[in-house]
Amino acid sequence: MEAVKILQIVGFKNSGKTTLMNRLIERAQTSGRKVSAIKHHGHSGIPELPPKGTDSTQFLASGAASSLVYGGGLVQLHLEEPEADLEKFIRFSLLANPDLILIEGFKGAGYPKIVLVRSQEDWRELGALSNIQLVIVHDGVKLENTATVDAGNIEAIARFFTEWMEGEVDESI
């Protein structure tokens, strides 16, 4: 099996991460690549579970450490995990035999990143992250000594992603 490529999409709340993830997933799928997606639920609380009373939530309520449901070609796993262990989540994602794994969030991880920036203030924190491959800015934000692409320049973003998928983008900025 060929190595699975991993790309992170990072930025602060409402910077367009989920929208970009969806566009990249669609582009990869259109080019014949299979994608696994991982998202860090950065909002307070836990991600939404199926309705109470379903078998899978009853298993969890009874004390199961995990609950896995299969039906109609879909596997749904609920697992109590006190720590955000990205490497474990990546191993889970590999069960789908993807060509690519796209990760929304987990800013501190060292994988290649697309960083979405809404302001100079965002960049002061995000600019210190490792392995930045592309910086996408909103509303004409200008960053000194940093190459950027405007969020509205869909063509440039698509070109970067295609080159990255094909292995032509190796260096971080």
TrEMBL record:
<dbReference type="InterPro" id="IPR052539">
    <property type="entry name" value="MGD_biosynthesis_adapter"/>
</dbReference>
<dbReference type="GO" id="GO:0006777">
    <property type="term" value="P:Mo-molybdopterin cofactor biosynthetic process"/>
</dbReference>
<dbReference type="GO" id="GO:0005525">
    <property type="term" value="F:GTP binding"/>
</dbReference>
<dbReference type="InterPro" id="IPR004435">
    <property type="entry name" value="MobB_dom"/>
</dbReference>
<feature type="domain" description="Molybdopterin-guanine dinucleotide biosynthesis protein B (MobB)">
    <location>
        <begin position="6"/>
        <end position="126"/>
    </location>
</feature>
<dbReference type="Pfam" id="PF03205">
    <property type="entry name" value="MobB"/>
</dbReference>
<protein>
    <submittedName>
        <fullName>Molybdopterin-guanine dinucleotide biosynthesis protein B</fullName>
    </submittedName>
</protein>
<dbReference type="InterPro" id="IPR027417">
    <property type="entry name" value="P-loop_NTPase"/>
</dbReference>
